[in-house]
Amino acid sequence: MSLNSSERSRVDKLLLKDILQAANISLDDTSDAMNSNGRSYRKNGVVLQVLIDYRNAETFTFGTNKMSYSYHVRHIPYSDYRVKQEIPIPDQEGNINQRVVLKRYTTRIEFSQIGKIGRFSLSSLLLQLASLMGLLTLTATIIDTIALYVIPNKEMYRQYVFDSSPELRKRLESEKEDEKTKSKVE
User: Fold this and answer.
1) Domain contains 185
2) DSSP class per residue in 23-56
3) Which of 80, 89, 159, 174 could form a disulfide with 45 if both were Cys (CB 3.0 to 4.6 A apart)?
4) Given this model, what pLDDT does residue 61 score?
């Protein structure tokens, strides 16, 4: 069973009775722990897990939806919870001759959180875009440096990058000659 943020007034204040009801148990029910001997959860203790599930980024609205959350409560079967505390009692001389052992049985509640929440930030988006552009520029610079100064055919690459390719140069020269012959003819 679960509790939801849309029910009640945002469920920020949880009562033990609500958690027990969501786990579908009562403290007066007979404990299912191995050593319970027919005692109730109240006298033997119990362990409950509460999972808080946050949501607001499920769609493509970039985290602009209203945040919602729900509580999912689960009883750990065959569990009990007890704390044993020994209190030493010293005598007049400071020697410990007696001790009092206190056994406390209680309800242990373990909380954990999951979910997907987010919020759109224009400054974060711009920072990411600037970083991307910087990395792309750095990559191009490294590749050009390797091509111009390291690889075996660096002269040919330099010719294609800074001058023009031999095929393009031949075509441009032939176009210039064609223009000269046209102008002479006219």
Assistant:
1) no
2) TT--TTSBP-STT-TT-BHHHH-EEEEEEEEEES
3) 80
4) 61
pLDDT tens digits, residue range 67-126?
Answer: 778 889 999 998 888 888 899 988 888 888 888 999 888 899 999 999 887 777 889 889
pLDDT at 164: 65
Full residue range of the structural domain in which residue 148 is found:
123-180
Q: How far apart are CA 43 and CA 40, in angstroms?
A: 5
Dihedral (CA of 125, 126, 131, 134) sign:
positive
Tokens of 4: 């939801």
Integer angstrom CA distances of residue 40 from 4, 49, 57: 28, 19, 43
Q: Which residues pair with 115 in a beta bridge?
A: 54
50 and 20 inside one domain? yes
